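quick q for whoever's on today - can somebody do inverse folding on this one?? i tried earlier but teh output was garbage lol. tokens:
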């Protein structure tokens, strides 16, 4: 389901992409569990959440996450929400991460 812009134009989806290395898996678990409730409130759904991966070029962290949102604005709203801002303190304390928000491509 794509978000509709003004005039019926299809708005590109938004994505949060995270690359991380978890230093303390047990302490990190509450962060991951809370995200199961936070992101759906903004239309977010996990497309990639860990799982098997292989680095083909360059360097990255051990874990990759991709969360799809109806729009770029929804992805930013989820990240900036008070709930997530409180929850990310757990992630920052127990993992090294790179996190970006990117607008999808709609031809």
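ok took a stab at it. sequence:
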């Amino acid at each position: 389901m794509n978000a509709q812009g003004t005039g019926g134009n299809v708005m590109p989806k938004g994505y949060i992409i995270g690359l991380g290395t978890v230093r303390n898996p047990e302490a990190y678990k509450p962060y991951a569990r809370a995200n199961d409730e936070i992101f759906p409130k903004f239309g977010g759904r996990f497309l990639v959440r860990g799982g098997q991966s292989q680095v083909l070029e360059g360097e990255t962290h051990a874990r990759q996450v991709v969360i799809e949102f109806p729009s770029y604005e929804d992805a930013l709203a989820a990240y900036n929400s008070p709930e997530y801002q409180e929850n990310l303190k757990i992630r920052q304390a127990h993992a090294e991460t790179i996190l970006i928000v990117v607008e999808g491509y709609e031809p």
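fwiw The longest helix spans residues 25-38. also Residues 5 and 30 are 36 Å apart (CA to CA). so keep that in mind when u check it
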